[in-house]
Amino acid sequence: MLFWSNDWSGNRPDVTETVKLFYERTPFPNYDDLDSSTALREKAQKGVFARLLDEQIPFGARILEVGCGTGQLSNFLGMTWGRNVFGADACLNSLKLGHGFSKDNHIENVCFIQMNLFRPVFKSESFDIVVCNGVLHHTSDPFLGFQAISKLIKLGGFVLIGLYNRYSRLTTDFRRFVFRVSGDRFQFLDPRLRDKNASAVKKHTWFMDQYKNPHASKHSIGEVQRWFDVSGFEFVNSIPKSTGDSFFRDEKLFEPHPRGSKVDHFLVQFGELLRGGRDGGFFIMIGRKVAYRTPRGRQNTLPRAGGRFSLEQRG
After folding, report:
1. What is the SS3 string spanning the chain?
2. d(C-alpha 270, C-alpha 188), whole Å
3. Alpha-carbon span 176 to 19, nearest angstrom
4. pLDDT tens-digit profile of 9-67?
5. Predicted pLDDT of residue 294
6. Which are the contacts of 92, defined by CB distance < 8 A and separation ≥ 6?
């Protein structure tokens, strides 16, 4: 076990143990419909994001998924020979499911460890890519969490973070209110809960994650772009696109795209709200590490990313 609790002084609130206990009881997502690596690959390739990651992450990349949960993405990415994938999470129950699946299906390029993202166990600049999807908004200080994991990325490497959106999440907030005051009735209001093809277990884990989670914050495109700016990252891409442009099935995830204006951001996020807050009002931001602080406080930088995906390999 490599998990150490936060050592925050004063009266600073910390929800780490509360959220950790919640996911120990209700691991998310579950493997109830996945009995083989083939089934996992088929499921992942149906989703645009996972498929594009698998296609565009180059040979030899060293990848860390922070807050991997039950490790489905880590296992999927680890199926490709030549990668080194680490899945880290606070919850042992979730990690056991991920490790068990990798062992049963002989996925040798993935390793699972228990870790507090505020106190990483890896050396600085250890990874080419760090993925942190659906995690930081369940912490007491998402920006501090981002700063902690950003140190693990090599110069020229990439961070991918997924968060609940301040605007498109309002649909979920409304349903949460209805469920709370009605004693969890009217669950047909959520499209996933009325899906006839979804199992009872899958519906239950989705319901618990979306509507019973003890802590979840909300964020915006512009806010995360500012996180990048002050942490030595340049904005590269987002899902949905920060300019309002279409996101294509052959999208180049790691090629630089325009940041978009404040008006663009508002229209994109409000548009997602009008569409019903798809996937719980979730959005993904991608940044490239272009600077780091030297011991004397100066900032060293890399040239801006070119038209192709390139990872700076360092020893």
Report:
1. CCCCCCCCCCCCCCCHHHHHHHHHHCCCCCCCCCCCHHHHHHHHHHCHHHHHHHHHCCCCCEEEEECCCCCHHHHHHHCCCCCEEEEEECCHHHHHHHHHHHHHCCCCCEEEEECCCCCCCCCCCCEEEEEEECCHHHCCCHHHHHHHHHCCEEEEEEEEEEEEECCCCHHHHHHHHHHHHHCCCCHHHCHHHHCCCCCHHHHHHHHHHHHCCCCCCCECHHHHHHHHHHCCEEEEEEECCCCCCCCCCCCCCCCCCCCCCHHHHHHHHHHHHHCCCHHHHEEEEEEEECEEECCCCCEEECCCCCCCCCCCCCC
2. 23
3. 18
4. 767 789 999 999 999 999 998 887 788 999 999 988 888 899 999 999 998 999 999 99
5. 52
6. 1, 24, 114
**Which residue type, as a one-letter code, is found at position 8?**
W
Q: Please give the structure tokens belonging to residue 40.
A: 């996992």
Cβ atoms within 10 Å, residue 53: 20
Contact 40, 34 (CB under 8 A): yes
Question: In one letter, which amino acid is 174?
Answer: F
What single letter denotes the amino acid at residue 197? N
Contact 278, 272 (CB under 8 A): yes
Nearest to 20 by CA among 152, 160, 117: 117
- Please give the mean pLDDT across all residues of the chain: 90
Distance set, CA 168 to CA 220, 261, 273, 282 (Å): 10, 18, 4, 8
Burial class (CB in 10 A: 0-12, 13-18, 19+), 76: buried
